[in-house]
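2024-03-11 09:14:02 DEBUG pipeline.ingest accepted 1 chain
2024-03-11 09:14:02 DEBUG pipeline.ingest length=505
2024-03-11 09:14:03 DEBUG pipeline.predict start
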Amino acid sequence: MKITETADVLVIGSGMGGATFAAGLAPTGAKIVILERGERLRDCEAARDARAIFQRGVFRPQESWLDGAGKTFNPGNYYYVGGNTKLYGAVLIRYRAEDFAPIAHRDGTTPGWPFGYDELEPWYTRAEQLYNVRGALGDDSSEPFHSAPYPFGPVPDEPAISAVRQRLKKIGLKPFSLPLGIDIEPWLKRAKTPWDAFPDTGHGKMDAESCGLACALAHDNVELREGAQVERLVAEPDGKRIAGVEVIQAGERTVIGAGTVVLAAGAVNSAALLLCSSQAGIANRSDAVGRYFMNHNSSAVLAIDPRVVNDSIYQKTIGINDFYLDDGHGGPPLGNIQLLGRVTAPILKANMPFAPELALGLMSRHAVDWYAMSEDLPSAESRVTVDGANIRLDWQRSNWTTHLALVATLKERLRAAGYPIVLSKAFDRRTPSHQCGTVRVGLDPATSPLDPFCRAFDHPNLFVVDASFLPTSAAVNPSLTIAAQALRVADHVARTDLRAHREMR
């Protein structure tokens, strides 16, 4: 097929990576076209209806993937303008400085990054400003250096959660205020619900659409195309550069050319797109595309005290990193702990369908809901492949011993804080707990598809800026790290590729 139009920069995907990259590059004046397979998420009653979201799965995608055994499952990835951030928990926390170096865990050692925390720190600050992060410095002993304070103060604890914070302090823990992308007043004005796993329809959540994309589209040189399904990347005849992409929109198949192509379709879909774009895969000299898939080991932990009522609405304001850098006794690290959004009876019913909702409501009324998260280690055998028209995700869970120790430690601490009943349940593959790593950055093109600026070693005009690039999962939410790297890459493209393109003109 012939190229029907051209852009200076094509961005595939409008999630955290793609939208933030476009925001960073927009001031250059380059013609940027963002291709998003989904549509805008419109406001509706279901957007604040827990039964619609969690029991009926109104916003889940209508697609199936294959697992490693060839069985189908419905993935929890979302296809809207703004990508997965439309339903994310809005925790915008930095990787710890130690996460950029190799770390010895109980079940293996991480490879580290091709650059250190100091290289990314200025971009973390810019990302926090772009996403209006609410937070406070000083309470988290694992917090890395910040060159500037958070733009806004923390989202306030509700009274019931303030009491929880004090209970934790009394047993020697150091709870800190989670850095959040939430303006709580407009969120609650729309409806008094949590925001975690609830879709944002323009009422206070700082997501890729409301912040990154809004910033980009404020420039006339940036265009968003909804319902644009990219089928494959098209290489030049000599295979050295990417000529453009083949895309289907409104039933019409076309090829759009570009000087620079930026892939940001998500850790699974970006890898699948590269793999199905040619027989050997695009940017795959290393045979690493699709490999090293990681997904945080995570569990929900409910702390129940029949003597105390939890009447909070949103709940999700506290984090605990006491066991992040070690296990509390000088041993290997365990991970991060944070509050979940308030888990009400309709949400519990989705996971316990045979339990009476009335009984679940009584349990929820006295429960505080936690999220325990441990690092998943990169393995070449944990991978995304393409099986005909199907995506196969063979997640080889690792470092599970560490996660079990984290959950056990959390349970012990919660009992010490006066919660006589503590229950836990691990999340399965239907919950995409921060998927990453399938097109990782590195220094050696024999083992990594991308260089430290997310440029493909095999194709100098191809970049990948979503969670695919992450060489390690760490044990905190990755959204802010993706945004920071996207801004860093945008600045690099502006200084190198676009400048060279203008000079050639």
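2024-03-11 09:14:41 DEBUG pipeline.report Residues 3-152+179-295+381-395+429-504 form a domain with the FAD/NAD(P)-binding domain fold (CATH 3.50.50.60).
2024-03-11 09:14:41 DEBUG pipeline.predict end
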